[in-house]
Each structure stands twice: as C-alpha cells, then as structure tokens.
Design a protein that fits this description.
4 helices; about 200 residues; alpha+beta; eight-stranded mixed sheet; about 25% strand
Length: about 200
C-alpha cells in the first residue's frame, strides 16, 4: 500500500510537469510538507520558464511563509517525488526587527531583502563564503537578482544548533543561505540550469 502511494505520488508530480497542468485533485494535498498551493505555483513557474530551465529533473522550493527555524527549503525530485528539506535564511531587509519571519519581499537594489519568484541556477564558483552558485531572476519580482549578487551559499549563522538555541536563524543580504551541512547536497543536486522557486502563501 505504501509503495503504491509512493508510485502514485511520483507519477502525479511528473505528470504535472509534463502536462503543464500544475494542480492537485485535492487542494490539501502535500508532498512531504510542501503546501499544495506553493507546489502548484512552483510547477507553473517551471512550465512558464521551460525555455530558460534546461534541467527539469530537480527543483528547489523555498516556503517563506514558514519561520526561519523550520527546514523550509525543499529539494524535490520530479521523477521519484522524493524530497529533502533544509534550513535557509532570508534577507535582513525582509525581516528588519529580526523576528525570524519574513515580513516582505523586495527586488530593489540595496534592499538586502529576499525576492519572490523563479530563479535559474547558473555557474558554480568558490567565493567569500566557499562553494556557491550564481542565480538569475526570471520574474519581474526578482529581475535584479544578478545585479544584486543574489546567490546560493553557506554561512555560520544557519545551523540546527542556532535554530534550536535562538528560535531563528541569522539573516542574509537577500541570498539563499544554507548550513555547512546542507550546502554540498544543495549545490550537487541543483547545479547549473535548474530552478529555484521562492514565495510566501498565507
């Protein structure tokens, strides 16, 4: 029974992408904790930007409706339906009072805020924060991502220990920042030419 449900889930997720029909039969369906509404939007973005996303086997989804202490970044394998979840920081411009909750998105230069929308992963590189990957914003809501140097990297202020002891993570300048424990899997499984989708659905 469990195996048949897993097979059904995998075929459902794959079918949504291939058929360009990003919707579940039931609005309360979830894939390992991903809200159905957010998943629909992410798959819709993948279909909408198919010409810019060469690799469509794995996508990243950031659910910024959740507190930063929660593992709210999901790596979803669209073939198998398997998901892994990770801590991710939001920008301090999105949470000026450091509440642990994203208050707003912004695409403005120097906002130090997180931007919503679809991103394409570009070149891997090693920078100030070690292994990282550049991002291009594909929507009007995140079109300044390259100019703002919004990237994926790791930092000391993202960890299980900090989430548990402080009840929240540190904040970034708008980048997707992961723990040292997660960054290798994030970079390896995403790599160039895949999509990250970020949003907050109340």
């Amino acid at each position: 029974m469990l195996r048949s449900r897993r097979n059904l889930l995998a075929s459902t997720v794959s079918g949504l992408v291939l058929s360009a029909a990003p919707a579940f039969a039931s609005p309360d369906k979830t894939v390992r904790g991903i809200s159905s509404a957010l998943l629909r939007k992410a798959l819709g973005a993948l279909n909408r930007h198919h010409g810019n996303i060469a690799q469509r086997d794995v996508i990243g989804i950031a659910d910024f409706a959740l507190a930063s202490r929660a593992p709210r970044f999901y790596l979803l394998d669209l073939g198998s339906g398997k998901v892994s979840s990770h801590l991710v920081a939001h920008g301090h411009g999105s949470d000026p009072m450091h509440t642990g909750w994203l208050q707003r998105f912004s695409n403005a230069p120097s906002s130090h805020a997180t931007s919503a929308g679809a991103y394409r992963t570009d070149a891997l590189y090693s920078g100030e924060h070690g292994p990282s990957i550049r991002l291009s914003g594909l929507d009007e809501s995140n079109s300044n991502a390259r100019a703002r140097a919004i990237v994926v990297h790791s930092a000391w202020y993202v960890s299980d220990d900090i989430a548990h002891s402080s009840g929240m993570l540190g904040r970034s300048d708008g980048c997707f920042v992961f723990s040292d424990m997660s960054i290798r899997e994030i970079l390896t499984r995403l790599g160039p030419a895949r999509m990250i989708y970020a949003d907050r659905i109340a």
